[in-house]
What does this fold into?
Amino acid sequence: MELVFTKEQIEAEIQKIYLEDEDVLMEGESLRGEGKEYVIKGVATIDGERYHDFEIAFGLLEEPKDETAEAILAGEWDWYDFLC
It folds into this structure.
C-alpha cells in the first residue's frame, strides 16, 4: 500500500514528524507499507539543512485500526531507521 498525502492532510500537518532525539523534522510526501512496518518519504530538515527524497522506516507497536495516513501516523512507534 502506498499513500500520497493530500492537500488537506498537508494543511492539517499530519505528515510532519519531529524526532526529538535526532533533532529531525520530517515533512512526508508519501507513506508506504503494511501491518506494523512503514516508510515515510519526503523532506527532512537536519541541522538547518533540507534533504529531499529522505526516507525513514518505522515500526509500530500495534497494527493501525485502518490503513489511513491518520491512523498509521497516530500509532506509537517501536523503532525507526533512516534509509537515506
Notes: The first strand starts at residue 2 and ends at 4. Helices lie at 7-11, 69-74. Residues 69-74 form the longest helix (6 residues). The two ends are 21 Å apart (CA to CA).
